[in-house]
Amino acid sequence: MNIPLQKFALALCLAAGAAASPAATITIACGSTSNELEVCKKHADAWARRTGNEVKTFSPPANPTEALALYRQLLGARSTDVDIILIDAVWPGVLKDHLLDLKAYTKGAENEHYPAIIQNNTVNGRLVGMPWYVDAGLLYYRKDLLAKHGLSVPLTWAELGAGAKKIQAAERAAGVKDFHGFVFQAKAYEGLTCNALEWVASWGGGTIVEPDGTISINNAGAAGALNMAAGWIGSIAPIGVLNYGEEDTRGVFQNGQALYMRNWPYAWALLNAPDSPVNGKVGVAALPRGEGAGAKSAATLGGWQLAVNRYSPNAEAAVDLLLYMTGPVVQKDRAIKGSFNPTRPALYGDADIARANPFMANLREVFANAVARPSTVTGLKYPSVSQSFWDATHDVLSKEAQGEDATRRLEGKLRLIRRGQW
Ligand code: GLC
Question: Would the CB of 190 count as within 6 Å of ligand 1?
Answer without folding.
Answer: yes
